[in-house]
Amino acid sequence: MRILIIGAGGVGSAAVRLAVRRSFFEALVVADYDPERPQRLIADMGDDRLLAAQVDASSADSVAALIQEHDATHVLNAVDPRFVMPIFEGCFRANATYLDMAMSLSRPHPDEPHAKTGVKLGDEQFAVSAEWEDAGLLALVGMGVEPGISDVFARYAEDELFSDIESLGVRDGANLVVAGYDFAPSFSIWTTIEECLNPPIIFEKERGWYTTEPFSEPEVFDFPEGIGEVECVNVEHEEVLLMPRWTRARRVDFKYGLGNEFIEVLKVLHKLGLDRTDPVSVKGVSVSPRDVVAACLPDPATLGDRMTGKTCAGVVVTGTGKDGAPRSSYLYHVADNEHTMREYGSQAVVLQTALGPVIALELLATGVWSGSGVLGPEAFSATPFLDLLAAPDGYDSPWGIQELPTS
């Protein structure tokens, strides 16, 4: 396996730090628009399987040319979701397996954005699934942590724990604190603005996919391993588009523990138009307001040494257990920033996000996972993934199940 990782930011760097401890690949090229970023990363790693390169992720031609130059067999997209389609298309042209952690962007319904779906997350990719399948190529989409590990949990729950699933509710929360900053998101603010200010999407079997107001239906969820109670709200996320395609769940939703301060900041950015991606002219210079916001905030990849706490990703599964009794279970994975910084030099959120695609790459390299077309994590067997995630001779990152009261 010859891997190309596009993006040498927090998640891309964490993926490299995870992968170099494994032997499943022959070569790994790290590419970024800024050539100095992968060069610095590779110098720190000291692994002769690593190479640095420059790429324009907005150009399918640039991506395809780089794949061909290095004979890359698998490409991991580790940049903002605005670059999904050119990287996706570049992989198809160059006959490479494609993996991402966020799918092609949505566009709200023009008339009823908080009731009806417009262009949904991943629609552009799923529209060409037959072409990928006919070509014998695989695009594994939504293979991060959320989406990604949460979707693997959904597959595992359906196969191993439940005979019938009423609902899959993804719940994400943390008690992370960043010292020295009044406001410092632990993940890409560009992506966070996109998913939090778009209309959240919900799936119900009888109704299909529909949307609601941002930050709607708040609920307090008690997260495990000392994180505690966090208020979670509806947010647009890929799991709601993926899980219904490969599970029999009758309802799927996603709620994120943002906190009141974070929500108010996002609302202000929206009121001021600073969430916009289309350029505006500032004294004759064309700039995207959202890019300016991102440039004004600290790079999440640099916050690890100032961060304390844990982050938790998981899915609440409700329905009927294999024994025929009602069951409600939270399948989850926790990343502790102290541990991830000590072991990998990456902060908890980006390290947890990078685990999913690196494990998937290893399963593809060994032939445990295989397929063609545009597929989500639920399309594959969950047990090998979860075994490798937790095994001391694997990625040594245990996951858990918390049983919840049934109503």
Description:
The chain has helices at about 10-20, 35-45, 60-70, 85-95, 125, 130-135, 150-160, 190-195, 240-245, 260-270, 290-295, 335-345, 350-365, 380-390; strands at about 1-5, 25-30, 50-55, 75, 95-100, 140, 160-175, 175-180, 200-205, 210, 220-225, 230-235, 250-255, 280, 285, 305-310, 310-320, 325-335, 375, 400-405. It is of the alpha/beta class and about 400 residues long. Strands 7, 9, 10, 11, 12, 13, 17, 18 and 20 form a nine-stranded mixed β-sheet that branches. A seven-stranded parallel β-sheet has the order 3-2-1-4-5-6-19, with helices on both faces. A two-stranded antiparallel ribbon has the order 8-16. α7 crosses α14.
Gist of the model:
The chain has 407 residues and is of the alpha/beta class.
What is the secondary structure topology, with strand pairs?
Layout: E1 2-6, H1 10-19, E2 27-32, H2 36-45, E3 50-54, H3 60-70, E4 74-77, H4 84-93, E5 97-100, H5 123-126, H6 129-134, E6 138-140, H7 149-161, E7 162-174, E8 177-178, H8 189-197, E9 201-204, E10 208-211, E11 219-223, E12 228-234, H9 239-246, E13 251-256, H10 260-271, E14 280-282, E15 285-287, H11 289-296, E16 307-308, E17 310-321, E18 326-336, H12 337-344, H13 348-365, E19 373-375, H14 382-390, E20 399-403
Helix pairs in contact: 1-13, 3-4, 7-9, 7-14, 13-14
The portion of residues forming beta strands comes to 25-35%
The chain-level structural class is: alpha/beta
Low-confidence stretches: none
Tally of alpha and pi helices: 14
The rounded distance between the terminal residues' Cα atoms is: 48 Å
Q: What form results from the Cα inertia axes?
A: globular
Return Rg in Å: 20 Å
Give the integer mean of the pLDDT values: 95
Largest sheet, in brief, is: 9 strands, mixed
Helix percentage: 25-40%
Total strands: the figure is 20
